[in-house]
Structure formats: structure tokens, C-alpha cells
Design a protein that fits this description.
There is one protein chain. The chain has one domain. The chain contains 5 helices and 6 strands; from the N terminus they run H-H-H-H-E-E-H-E-E-E-E. Helix content is about 30%, strand content about 15%. The protein has a 4-stranded antiparallel beta sheet, with helices on one face. Strands 4-5 form a two-stranded antiparallel sheet. Strand 4 and strand 5 form a beta hairpin. It starts with a helix and ends with a strand. It is of the alpha+beta class and about 150 residues long. The protein is flat and about 50 Å long.
């Protein structure tokens, strides 16, 4: 009887056949859904249309694979800087800022510089908290897997 009911539902509502049975967090937080794939494509297309370089647009691919992570990610990029003293500042990305900050890291005026979307990873369903992931840098309070060193 249960199989007949499941088959009837699958035929009546084909979208249910693609639902992730292990995700109990809501569709926006489930991994690799069609909604995620559409949101990712739209976010990347908008960034490219806005003139973002391909290497920055690729940061969207490194976000957790749920629709909420993409929808809640910023539409623009930022630069995170760490001074020699350890102070952190974050400003909007420009190619000129990045180039200047990369030079400042090279000559020792800055300790670190990264292009980021967001400072920490977004946790989709059943994902570890950002600070519990191996890419988390507690000194910078940042998830490094979704950041690029300034060039």
C-alpha cells in the first residue's frame, strides 16, 4: 500500500521525485537542488554582466551548494585586509585596491589581503558551522576556501 501511495504521488507530482529525502531543513537549505543550480547560474551571470573578473565569479562555485547560500551571498566582492598589528578592515573590491593591497603585503605594510564574498561560509543543511571546518582561519575569523589572496 505504501509503495502504491508513493508511486501515485510521484506520478501526480513529478517534482517530488527529485526531493532530497535526507534533507529536513527546507528546500532552500538542501544540497544540489534545481533551485540551487538556477540561483548559482543567475548570480554568476549577474556578476559577469557587472564586469567582475572570471576568477572572482568562480568564488560563487565554492559556496555551499544550497539555494540559500547563493541567494544570501553578496552581489559584490570585498577586500579583507589584516594590518601588521592584526587589525582587520573590509572594503569594497576594486582592481586597483586589490593590486595596491597585494603590493602592500609583498612589501610588509600589510600582513594579509584577501578578496572575499563573505567572511565565513554559509552552512547549508547538515553542514558543519564555519568555525568547525578545516578552512577556517581563527586569526582572520574567515573561511579561506571562499577567498582569494590579493594579486
Amino acid at each position: 500500500m505504501k509503495r502504491l501511495l508513493a508511486l501515485s504521488l510521484a506520478l501526480a507530482m513529478p517534482g517530488l521525485a527529485f526531493a532530497n529525502p535526507t534533507c529536513n531543513c527546507g528546500p532552500d537549505y538542501c544540497l544540489d537542488t534545481p533551485g540551487y543550480k538556477n540561483a548559482l547560474a543567475n548570480k554568476k551571470a549577474a556578476a559577469q554582466k557587472g564586469g567582475a573578473p572570471a576568477r572572482l565569479v568562480a568564488l560563487y562555485d565554492k559556496l555551499d551548494h544550497c539555494e540559500a547560500a547563493i541567494r544570501m551571498s553578496p552581489d559584490s566582492f570585498n577586500i579583507l585586509r589584516q594590518s601588521k598589528e592584526g587589525d582587520i578592515t573590509i572594503d569594497g573590491w576594486t582592481s586597483e585596491n586589490e593590486k595596491n593591497d597585494a603590493a602592500a603585503v609583498k612589501n610588509g605594510a600589510l600582513k594579509a589581503c584577501y578578496v572575499i564574498l563573505a567572511r565565513t561560509a554559509f552552512a547549508c543543511c547538515n553542514a558543519p558551522k564555519p568555525e568547525d571546518r578545516p578552512d577556517y582561519d581563527s586569526t582572520l575569523e574567515m573561511s579561506k576556501s571562499t577567498a582569494l589572496a590579493c594579486q
